[in-house]
Specification:
By secondary structure, the protein is of the alpha/beta class. Helix content is 42%, strand content 20%. The longest helix has 15 residues. The chain is globular. The structure holds S-adenosylmethionine.
Length: 215
């Protein structure tokens, strides 16, 4: 199931053409060539907008790949901010630092190679945003780890929370890994039912959970 009608996504993508610059286009081309699941332009601009809207200066990403989502968060936090990127693959660190360095966006970046939720556990203090895009069976644990690390007025943002519509339970949508769907649904329900947050899923691309921490 396409969450966003592809024609609508194309329309929005075309509205965002002013962001075209060589490094971003290279990163998007790599995602396409390798079929690597980056958040894409529409969600990238959305997370930058959310981060700027709350004046985010300290962001922790769980699951950064080669730095595409980090590109947008780095623009938001600025060179004097703090952007923690995490990934299990050291080659993704090398690529992210190369891309973001060439884009002039490496200033706030600290890249942690290893298990992302463990890296969050080792980091100090609270964050304006914890962004989650790790393997889906890790979503409930990521939420439990992140929940208390977000400042009042800060955000938990999580990608793929509609999982191509599989979370709806529609029997017409093929689901070869129902345990992953169940993990995403468990996290979605935990967040939606948490009185400490106001949250909803933005139905763009593959569904973006946005949860604002209340007092
Ligand atoms: C969906 S991709 C990230 C895409 C990135 N957020 C973007 O939009 O540009 C997920 C990445 O996180 C890595 N990953 C998945 N689970 C992880 C975990 N528990 N700890 C560290 N890295 C993880 C994967 O290997 C992959 O490189």
């Amino acid at each position: 199931m396409d969450i966003t009608n592809p024609k609508v996504e194309d329309y929005i993508r075309n509205l965002l053409a002013r962001h075209d610059e060589n490094v971003l286009l290279e990163m998007e081309a790599e995602g396409k060539e390798r079929n690597f699941p980056i958040i894409g332009r529409m969600v990238g601009v959305a997370v930058e907008l959310l981060a700027r809207a709350i004046g985010a200066r300290r962001v922790f990403e769980l699951g950064s790949g080669y730095g595409y989502s980090g590109y947008w968060f780095s623009r938001a936090v600025g060179p004097d901010g703090e952007l923690h990127l995490t990934d299990g693959d050291p080659e993704n660190e090398r690529k992210a630092l190369d891309y973001l360095g060439r884009a002039g966006l490496a200033g706030p970046v600290q890249f942690h190679v290893g298990e992302a939720v463990a890296a969050l556990g080792e980091a100090k203090g609270t964050f304006d945003i914890v962004y989650c895009d790790i393997d889906k069976d890790g979503y409930p644990g990521a939420w439990r780890a992140a929940r208390g690390r977000i400042r009042t007025g800060g955000l938990f943002i999580c990608d793929n929370t509609l999982w191509s519509g599989r979370v709806t339970g529609d029997p017409d949508i093929e689901d070869t890994r129902p345990e992953l769907t169940a993990a995403i649904d468990e996290m979605n329900r935990a967040i939606a039912g948490d009185p400490g947050f106001v949250a909803t899923i933005l139905p763009i691309r593959d569904g973006v959970m946005v949860a604002l921490r209340l007092g």
